[in-house]
Design a protein that fits this description.
71 residues, four-stranded antiparallel sheet
């Protein structure tokens, strides 16, 4: 389930949400995730996916993705 989408620059978005963990086809629990989407050649691509223990990125994460631009 997508909880939020934050556009950090044109063509770059951070998606945060929760995924259901399955074991033998049955729900076992949920885990939070974050994904970075970049639009390249007119298509959205997930370039990074992270399953943090909390719904925050490391302090320097925004600095690390600040140079990303869509094409």
């Amino acid at each position: 389930t997508v909880d939020s989408v934050e556009f950090v620059s044109p063509g770059v978005a951070i998606e945060r949400g929760v995924s259901t963990v399955l074991a033998e086809g049955k729900p076992e629990g949920v885990i939070s995730y974050a994904a970075v989407h970049v639009k390249r050649n007119g298509k959205n691509n997930i370039i990074f996916k992270h399953y943090p223990s909390e719904k925050r990125f490391p302090t320097d994460f925004r600095r690390r993705i600040s140079g990303l631009r869509s094409t």
